[in-house]
Amino acid sequence: MVFKNTHEPIIDEALWKAVQKLRMNKRRPTRQGEQNALSGLLFCADCGQKLYLCRAKSLSKSQKYYVCSTYRKHKSESCSPHTIRTVILEQLILEAIQKITAYVSDYEQEFINIVMDCGKHEAERKTRKIKKTIMQMQNRYLELDNIFKKLYEDNISGKLSDERFTKLSAGYESEQEQLKEAMVTQQREYYEVSATKLKTDQFIEIVHKYTHITELSPEILYEFIDKVIIHAPDTSSGKRIQKIDIIFNGIGEISI
Predict the structure, then answer these.
(1) What is the DSSP letter of 245?
(2) Is 17 exposed, middle or buried (0-12, 13-18, 19+ CB in 10 A)?
(3) Nearest to residue 72, comparing CAs of 47, 41, 39, 92?
(4) Smallest Cα–Cα separation from 36: which of 68, 72, 64?
(5) 115: closest CA among 131, 100, 94, 98?
(6) Which residues pair with 46 in a beta bridge?
(7) What is the pLDDT of residues 114-168, one digit of tens each?
(8) Contact yes or no for 41/27 (Cβ under 8 A)
(9) pLDDT tens digits, 68-124
């Protein structure tokens, strides 16, 4: 049995998670000694794959850009470039963090109410979906128990050979084990979705750690940002318009 949060942690959970993200997404320095601070955070809105940083000695800092890794590998076969310049993306993320930290500093309780209200309907939708999935898994698990019973009876009566019984039962046992693991995962996700208030409190604790953020660092990015979703640019109006979704840790996408 595992009982969480029964002792004072050595480091707070938000910082621990940020460090794990940093370790998972190792940022290799360029030949010029630069670090890719956004490594592992950018995802294509269409194919879901990560964006790749394109850089070269011939490109200035303002010319470096990110591109969809699927497009880069397979060109136009699977996805479009979703190109966005690094300096613009970093500025947009910095402004989003500055706005949300300033708002929390001035209107903390209102911010909590906004997050809880936004998260309530989404959480209800997700919990309904998870509960339905768990119920389907439980029904299938019971169905497999009945199948086992029938196989055993057929084997005892001679209707099913030992070899056939062993082969069939092994397959169903494997399915049951997979169902067990899947149900544990779904149950864990259910509790995580239900813990919106706790996650909001943790996010506010992070905000309190920083004042007057003027530039992005890997630590700030991984404490505040869960991921950034890059949409394909729209040029139908004659201008290049591109949408990005900034997903904050614990509170998701929120507009102040």
Answers:
(1) E
(2) middle
(3) 47
(4) 64
(5) 100
(6) none
(7) 777 766 666 677 778 888 888 999 999 899 889 988 888 888 888 888 888 888 8
(8) no
(9) 988 888 766 678 899 999 999 999 999 999 998 898 888 888 888 877 776 666 667
For residue 248, the cross-strand partners are: 225, 252
CA distance 48 to 78: 12
pTM: 0.61
Evaluate whether 119 touches 196 at the Cβ level (below 8 Å): yes
Find, among 101, 134, 112, the residue nearest to 197 by Cα: 112
Q: What is the DSSP string of 23-88?
A: HHS-----TTS---TTTTTEEETTT-PBEEEE--TTS-GGG-EEEEHHHHHHGGGT-----EEHHH
Residue 114, CA distances (Å) to 117, 119, 223, 236, 254 in order: 5, 8, 20, 34, 9
Question: The tokens of 154 are what?
Answer: 């057929």
Per DSSP, what are the bridge partners of residue 44? Answer: 230
Q: For residue 241, give Cα distances in angstroms to 35, 49, 201, 235.
A: 28, 21, 35, 6
Please state, in angstroms and rounded to a whole number, the distance separating the CA atoms of residues 202 and 79: 37
Contact 237, 84 (CB under 8 A): no
What is d(CA 78, CA 80) in angstroms, rounded to the nearest whole number? Answer: 7
Tokens of 191: 């509790």
Percent composition of the chain: helix, strand, coil (DSSP 3-state, to 5): 60, 10, 30
Helix (H, G, I), strand (E, B) or coil at 100: helix
